[in-house]
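Dear colleagues,

For the upcoming journal club I promised to circulate an example of a predicted protein-ligand complex. I picked one with zinc ion because it came up in last month's discussion. The inputs are reproduced below in full, followed by the predicted structure.
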Amino acid sequence: MSVKDKDAYTRLNFLHQAAHLILNQCPNNQALVRFYCHTQRSIAKRLVLRHDPSVKRTICKRCSALLVPGISCTIRQRKKNRPVTVIRCVTCGLTKRFENRRDYQVWSEHSEAQLQHQTLTKEPVAPQTSCDVSQTSKQTETPRDTVVQS
Ligand SMILES: [Zn+2]
């Protein structure tokens, strides 16, 4: 990631957090939230940066509202042919549908996407000699209290 991209991602992060904060503290100020999310989307579009799907799914495609269940969107489970989650934007009424499949992976989680990314960067992997990488998983066994019900 280049320095320019790092700055841009920092700004995107700030805008997303600011939108969440405004929506939390004064839910009536939807215009400011939409402005933040719209700015966030336009920056990402201009610099061709990809949002993580977890972030992308919280922004309405039509009106750029921040979709938080119970405040600015509704979530319903529907089942006609296949079970789907329907997210409806309260502001503009646009609906998103996501299939409820246990084995579903977004593209960024696919192993093929990771391989493609590795071949594109073409950076030689420097052997790490400075620090020992052998990370032992710290699994301390917590003693489980046995509750005896009398
Ligand atoms: Zn909307």
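Two points we might discuss: Residues 6-107 form one domain. The radius of gyration is 21 Å.

See you all on Thursday,
B. R.
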